[in-house]
Amino acid sequence: MTQKRDAILCEMGLGPIWRLRNKTETVRADEPFVTAQDRPVEAPIAVHPEPVEGQGDRASRIARMDWEELRQSVAACRTCGLCQARKQAVLGVGDVNADWLFVGEGPGAEEDERGEPFVGQAGKLLDAMLAAIDIKRGKDVYIANAVKCRPPNNRTPEPEETAACWPYLQRQIALIQPKLIVALGRPAAQTLLGVEVKIGASRGRRFEHQGIPLIVTYHPAYLLRNLSDKAKAWEDLVFARKSMRELKLKTV
Ligand code: URA
Ligand code: SF4
């Protein structure tokens, strides 16, 4: 294990766990201890709510937008109730030609203030998670959320709200065309897959969103409250990195 990776794993709260395991199990930090590559690709049927009247037009307009139009549309959007308490909508950040797309739930207080996703405490952990698999914010990764406006008191967005915001995320995906999507937490996973998802039962499997491989892991804010699950998130990241390597080999 390199010193850098050691430091990152420490920041993720994994250092001691790894050392403990390494002593007894000789598990390498860069190898998954759950191998999921043999499991079948899951292909759930998308079941997003029917668009309410007029929303079909809106969705098809959004589906034709370029980045600048998307930015303006999101900034001015008042389609769902989340517009009421937001300071600003938060579209996303990063490399628009990225291979990696990470999708969270929705902006928190700091994100609402600064207009960038994952800049608060959960964001620090996300950056450490990215660094653990050699990814740096802004380079080959785009970070977005299921809803672009902050839910009051950081509550979970309602299905109506994620559905109202869904055309924006869909357009972001279509423009970026990532090789792999990582859904952070249940709301993101359910929004992207259009089905009920339990993170614990879905980890280590490869799903698809419109032909793009998708994997799920815990949301960093959840990991801050449930430190013992950080080791599982690390397994998921290693699985993600391995999947990306395979995907890149396929497209060479
Ligand atoms: N949590 C999220 O899901 N997204 C953010 O941007 C910040 C915290
Ligand atoms: Fe519009 Fe999405 Fe904000 Fe709702 S959360 S107001 S749909 S940008």
From TrEMBL:
Q: Does the keyword Repeat apply?
A: no
Group of enzyme by EC: hydrolase
One Pfam family hit: UDG
CDD domains with a match to the protein in the record: UDG-F4_TTUDGA_SPO1dp_like (cd10030)
Q: Which residues form the Uracil-DNA glycosylase-like domain?
A: 91-238
What's the Enzyme Commission number for this chain? 3.2.2.27
Superkingdom of this entry's organism?
Bacteria
Query: Which Gene Ontology BP terms does the record give?
Result: DNA repair
Task: Name any one GO molecular function.
Answer: uracil DNA N-glycosylase activity
Give the reaction(s) catalysed: Hydrolyzes single-stranded DNA or mismatched double-stranded DNA and polynucleotides, releasing free uracil
Q: Print the keywords alphabetically.
A: 4Fe-4S, DNA damage, DNA repair, Hydrolase, Iron, Iron-sulfur, Metal-binding
Question: To which protein family does this belong?
Answer: Belongs to the uracil-DNA glycosylase (UDG) superfamily. Type 4 (UDGa) family.
Q: Which PANTHER family match?
A: TYPE-4 URACIL-DNA GLYCOSYLASE (PTHR33693:SF1), TYPE-5 URACIL-DNA GLYCOSYLASE (PTHR33693)
What name has this protein been given in UniProt?
A: Type-4 uracil-DNA glycosylase
